[in-house]
Amino acid sequence: METVNQLVATGQFRILKVPLGFIKILEWIFAIFAFATCGSYSGMFKMSVECKNRSDSNLNIEVEFQYPFRLHQVYFDAPTCTGGQERQFLVGDYSSSAEFFVTIGVFSFLYSMAALAFYVFAFEKYRENNKAPLIDFGVTCFFTFMWLVSSAAWAKGLSDVKTATDPERVVTLIPACGKVENQCREVHDPVMSGLNTSAVFGYLNLILWGGNLWFVFKETGIVAPFMRAPPAQEKQPAPESFGQPGVCPGGPLRQLPGGLPARLQPAGGRVQSGWGIRTRRICPAGGANLLLKPDVSQTASPGGERQWNWAEPCLRPSHNSTLLPVSCLCRKLLMSAM
After folding, report:
1. CA-CA distance, 97 to 292, in Å (whole number)?
2. What pTM was estimated for this model as a whole?
3. Which site in 3, 57, 262, 334 is 20 to 30 Å from 108, CA atoms measured?
């Protein structure tokens, strides 16, 4: 009992409220109805043979048949109207379509039950990668196709069973009924409502499994890239010299307040603040703002001149601006102080 309580406590039963789990419950239930209504069927019909000699007549001939509908093995005794009985057999063997239909129903029932258990108790593992959803999608495709084939085959087999068990047709198999002086007629037709229901549930299962393909397919993640909104296109700078490593195009070196050398960007760029607050904001002509926070250290060259070492500047766009590439941001740019 404790084990059951632990399983219930760890189960994610909310999955049963979403289409992926709810349709699986319907598949499980409808599969039961499909194979149960077909596999448990048994029917009976009655006929009467009235001979010229009333003592030889049989007014209550019962013929029983059942799943799997090997009708060529079903027989009954009919009067010959000459003082004897003759054994007659029905015509047809429709077991293949019936057994195929029931087999698909049973395996659909088992798979739906296993999938439901996996959804409830191991849904996190189901979504770890797309391996389990792909297997689920492949099996769902398989059962969708199998329900189509088995339902169509069983619908044709059911039509043949109805024809082979029609009392008006069966009486034609009795030799005594071919004589004018004898009268043969049907007394009771077989009840086929259970078999009709099984055929209907077969096509309902086809609709359920086919409709569930979309919800299982979404779990595979294949459709995700096609559902994302296209990324916003960024405006790129026009100068051809951008992107060349170690080259800082445009303008002479200038000295910022605080002794930090910098190169102004061409086309209207201007310095807004200097080294005193360790930031430099460059405003290109396009209106975008770039905030640069370089880590700068000063060293002395062998010739006695001061040099500045730039190490991995931080580049980020300011509010409502577009980030533009600036090739001047070299990893290590040595600049002589002016």
Report:
1. 77
2. 0.63
3. 3
